[in-house]
Amino acid sequence: MVQAWYMDESADDPRLPHRGDPCSLVGLEQLRRLGVLYWKLDADKYENDPELEKIRKERNYSWMDIITICKDKLPDYEEKIKMFYKEHLHLDDEIRYILDGSGYFDVRDKEDKWVRIFMEKGDMITLPAGIYHRFTLDEKNYVKAMRLFVGEPVWTAYNRPADHFEVRGQYVEFLAQTE
């Protein structure tokens, strides 16, 4: 089951859990109200998983690749880690399925507070287009993830502020309707 919580305000190493004190947990329903979707799958059978295939078909996730984020495997590792952690949005949904390792997706809630989502092997998440978010590894410094897209991949991240994009306006409208 997914673990999510409101983050503290500390500027310490982003790879630490950053749980608020007291820790305020965020459940699946709260994540859904932010447009975040979550599945728990069997990552050991990702190559022939009927459940994954069903999700991909239902949601039109037609393109995929696999990325390994660690010092030994990712070119320009330090720069990429910094880039992933800058607050940004995308014009398309961001879909990630953790095949091994772990890390954190941070998303902004309706009040612009950070919610940290711990992702580990078997967790699959969809962040909606227009949501401000960022990603970092945890202290293990390793994750292997499947990246999925509807159609051809678009890798462009728009750092905050990016409120002028139509997709951001649509997302804000979605948030207003889920109150």
Automatic annotation (TrEMBL):
Q: Where along the chain is Fe(2+) bound? A: 88, 90, 94, 133
Kindly state what the record says about how the cofactor is bound: Binds either 1 Fe or Ni cation per monomer. Iron-binding promotes an acireductone dioxygenase reaction producing 2-keto-4-methylthiobutyrate, while nickel-binding promotes an acireductone dioxygenase reaction producing 3-(methylsulfanyl)propanoate.
Tell me how this protein sits in the membrane.
Peripheral membrane protein
- Catalysed reaction equations from the record: 1,2-dihydroxy-5-(methylsulfanyl)pent-1-en-3-one + O2 = 3-(methylsulfanyl)propanoate + CO + formate + 2 H(+); 1,2-dihydroxy-5-(methylsulfanyl)pent-1-en-3-one + O2 = 4-methylsulfanyl-2-oxobutanoate + formate + 2 H(+)
Compartment(s) where it occurs, according to its Swiss-Prot or TrEMBL record: Cytoplasm; Nucleus; Cell membrane
Q: Which domain of life is it from?
A: Eukaryota
Pfam families membership? ARD (PF03079)
Q: Could you tell me the keywords of this UniProt record?
A: Amino-acid biosynthesis, Cell membrane, Cytoplasm, Dioxygenase, Iron, Membrane, Metal-binding, Methionine biosynthesis, Nickel, Nucleus, Oxidoreductase
Binding-site positions, Ni(2+): 88, 90, 94, 133
Report the main location listed first in the record.
cytoplasm
Q: In which pathway does it act?
A: Amino-acid biosynthesis; L-methionine biosynthesis via salvage pathway; L-methionine from S-methyl-5-thio-alpha-D-ribose 1-phosphate: step 5/6
What's the subunit arrangement here?
A: Monomer. Interacts with MMP14.
Record function comment: Catalyzes 2 different reactions between oxygen and the acireductone 1,2-dihydroxy-3-keto-5-methylthiopentene (DHK-MTPene) depending upon the metal bound in the active site. Fe-containing acireductone dioxygenase (Fe-ARD) produces formate and 2-keto-4-methylthiobutyrate (KMTB), the alpha-ketoacid precursor of methionine in the methionine recycle pathway. Ni-containing acireductone dioxygenase (Ni-ARD) produces methylthiopropionate, carbon monoxide and formate, and does not lie on the methionine recycle pathway. Also down-regulates cell migration mediated by MMP14.
Q: Which family does it belong to?
A: Belongs to the acireductone dioxygenase (ARD) family.
What protein is this chain from?
Answer: Acireductone dioxygenase
Q: Which organism is it from?
A: Felis catus (Cat)
Gene (name only)? ADI1
